[in-house]
Amino acid sequence: MREHEANAKRVAEFLRERPEVERVHYPGFPDHPGHELARRQMRGFGGMVTVDLAGGAPVAKRFAESTRYFALGESLGGVESLIGYPWTMSHGAFEPDAKRSKGITEATVRLSVGIEHADDLCSDLAQALERAAGAR
User: Fold this and answer.
1) Which of 38, 52, 61, 100 has a CB 3.0–4.6 Å from the CB of 27, allowing a cystine?
2) Which are the contacts of 112, defined by CB distance < 8 A and separation ≥ 6?
3) pLDDT per position as a tens digit, 9-40
């Protein structure tokens, strides 16, 4: 769990600096709306990171399909890194307004950061972001 959380923090910080990323949702950031609650209830901040990408659906889909270490999957929370596109995967059955009310847009991608080496994960995300940028 320590590695899972440390990697998620590193990935969240890395993604926050990328111009292709509009927003990073990670409770370990002090400006996250749930930060104080998470800090009180948990020893760490978990391994989930959600991003909203610039460029909408085409970029988000291409990004999710372009990773090498992050396997595309709906079931999140294992020791291996997984990536999901909630608009059509985990929340595909919801009406668009219901998705948006939950903070899910066509540009949203969820990561369950695993215990692989953080440098490899960040490198993988960088190449996927660069490939996805061409989908605009």
Assistant:
1) 38
2) 47, 48, 76, 77, 78, 81, 82, 83, 84
3) 999 999 999 999 999 999 999 999 999 999 99
